[in-house]
Amino acid sequence: MPKIVHHLFNSDEKHLEQIKESLLLGASDLAKNTSVENIKIDDLVNKAEVSRSTFYKVFHSVDSIFKELGKKLSNEITEYTLSHSPAIPDAAARVAIKTKRALLFITKAPFLASLLLKEEWPSSDPNHMMYKDIEKDFMDGKAQGYFSDMPASIGTNLILGCLRGAAKDILETKQPDDYIDKVIYQILISLGVDQKIAAELSKNPASALSVPPTGVASNVASLQNHTKAN
């Protein structure tokens, strides 16, 4: 009997996870043309074709579903990026290239990026994989003599804060063609990089981050007529 109950429990868990995925995708679809603040629970349950009681089994509000969506997108994109990034021994160049790839991604996929920002991407949580990756880059840069001798938390949050601010600027207002280069230059200068080196590194070419081929991020990216989630 315990085995049967356990099997049913797992089956129910799997069913709820499928409903959760359906609600997340439906929420992103609705956000294409409707401000998140104007989306109601009825809109979400009708889109996913589930009952309100089922909705409340996995989420407690509209805000919670978009926070979960942003978190899931952030984790999927970060995991995929970290597993598909080439090794760059020079830490200053690494910071410049990674930052440029992230900001080019914002310009390439503004709708997807706007959903990421609902979760205050990039995360300032020291336990988040992206924070840890940037922290390592900063520590390497300090060890290599590129960056100033400041606490790792300050250097890491400086990079994260500039990246988050630049992402919002790109989504809210059309920026000049050299905007991303200027942002990277300013980040490097703030970290203590020599002006000449910072100028050279900020102009290095890079490609935008890729969207994972599977998962919620892939499904959201495939939605047509992308618009910003205000």
Describe the protein.
By secondary structure, the chain is mainly α. The chain has a domain at 85-209. 67% of the residues lie in helices and 0% in strands. The longest helix is centred in the first third of the chain and has 29 residues, at 2-30. The chain is elongated, with a radius of gyration of 20 Å. The N and C termini lie far apart (51 Å). Residues 1-9 and 224-230 have low confidence and may be disordered. Residues 17-77 form the HTH tetR-type domain. One of its GO terms (molecular function) is DNA binding. Keywords: DNA-binding. It comes from Polynucleobacter paneuropaeus.
- Strand elements, count: 0
The pLDDT mean sits at: 90
User: Given the C-alpha coordinates, what overall shape results?
Assistant: elongated
Helix/strand/pairing category: mainly alpha
What percent of the residues sit in helical stretches (DSSP H or I)?
55-70%
Computed over alpha carbons, the radius of gyration is: 20 Å
How many angstroms separate the termini?
Answer: 51 Å
Strand content: under 5%
Poorly predicted spans: 1-9, 224-230
Main sheet summary: none
Strand/helix succession: HHHHHHHHHHH
User: What is the count of DSSP helices, taking H or I runs of 4+ residues?
Assistant: 11
DNA-binding region: 40-59
InterPro entries: Homeodomain-like_sf, HTH_TetR
Keywords: DNA-binding
GO molecular function: DNA binding
